[in-house]
Amino acid sequence: MEIIGYLASILIGISLGLIGGGGSILTVPVLVYLFHIDPIQATAYSLFIVGASSLVGAWPKYKQGFVNLKTAIIFGIPSIIAVFATRKFLLPALPNEIAEFGGIIITKSLMMMLLFAILMVAASFSMIRSRTSSIDLKEEDQKFNYPIIILEGSLVGILTGLVGAGGGFLIIPALVMLSKLPMKQAVGTSLLIIAAKSLIGFTGDLGNGTMNWNLLLMVTALAIGGIFIGDKLSKHIDGNKLKIGFGWFVLGMGFFIIAQQLFFPIGGSH
Q1: Scanning 4, 109, 153, 195, which has its CA 20 to 30 A from the CA of 62?
Q2: Distance between CA atoms of 154 and 162, rounded to whole angstroms?
Q3: Quick check: 82 and 157 in contact, CB under 8 A?
Q4: Residue 7: DSSP 8-state
Q5: Stretch among 32-36, 70-74, 168-172 having the lowest mean pLDDT
Q6: DSSP single-letter state for residue 95
Q7: CA-to-CA distance for 15 and 184, rounded, in angstroms?
Q8: Neighbours of 130 (CB within 10 A)
C-alpha cells in the first residue's frame, strides 16, 4: 500500500500543476487509506504537504506578477491566526467521543473525516461547474470590506485547521468578489495565502504529538515533483476539461468516505 501511496503523492502534485488546485483535497484520503495514518494526525501532515506545495506553486505566479501581496496580507492574517488557534487549542480540547446518533458514536476522528468528505463534495461541485472564460476581469481600484474579509478569512482558517485542506475553492471566489482581483491574480494570491496559513497552522501541531518526518518529507517531495510534471503537461492538456473530470472523481471519493466511515469503518488505523 505504501508504494501506491507514494505514487498517489506524485498525482497530488500533478493535479496541482495541471489545474492549479484540487490536489490538496486528496492528501488526507491518501494518508489515511494508503499510509494508515490516524485522521487527526493526517490533517496535520496535510497542512505541511499542502503548505509546502502551495509555496512552490506560488513562486512562479509571483514572478509573473499574479500575486497581490497587500490582499494576501489582509486576507491571510485572520486566516493564519484562526488555523493556528484551531490546531493548537481547539482540536486538542475536543473530547474523543463527541456525540451519539442512532447507535453511531461520533468520535473526533469520525467527525473530522465526515467534515472532510463534505468539503470534498462541496469542492467537487465547484470544479464540475467551473468554466474557462476568455474575458478576464479588469483590475479595479481595491476597496476592502474589512469586516467581511476578516470573517471570511477566519472561517476559512478554522476549516483549514479542522480538515487540513487548503480551501482554495473558497478563497479564490472571495478574493474575486471581496477584493476585486482579476482571476489570474486571485489564483496566484490564494496559493500564497494557502502556503502561509497551512505552514503556520502546522506549527500549532508540533507540541501535540510525534511526527513521522521521513514519511512527511518524502510525500511532500513527491508532491512538489508532481507540480513540475503537471505544469509541463498543462501546456498540452485542456485544463478545464480535466478539472471537470477531476471534480467528478473527487465527488465519488467524498461519497465513498462518508459511506465507509459510517457503515464500513476500518479498524487498525494508527
Answers
A1: 153
A2: 12
A3: yes
A4: H
A5: 168-172
A6: -
A7: 18
A8: 16
Q: Which helix (H) or strand (E) holds 267?
A: none
- What is the pTM for the complete model shown? 0.82
Residues 6+ apart with CB under 8 A from 19: 127, 230, 234, 239, 242, 243, 246
**C-alpha cell of residue 231:** 505544469
Neighbours of 259 (CB within 10 A): 11
Residue of 238, 170, 164 lying closest to 197 (CA atoms): 164
What is residue 259's three-state secondary structure? helix
Q: Is the pLDDT of residue 133 over 50?
A: no
- C-beta separation of 25 from 250 below 8 A: yes
The answer to whether the beta carbons of residues 175 and 71 sit under 8 Å apart is yes
Q: Which of 116-120, 188-192, 221-225 has the highest mean pLDDT?
A: 221-225
Residue type, 218: M
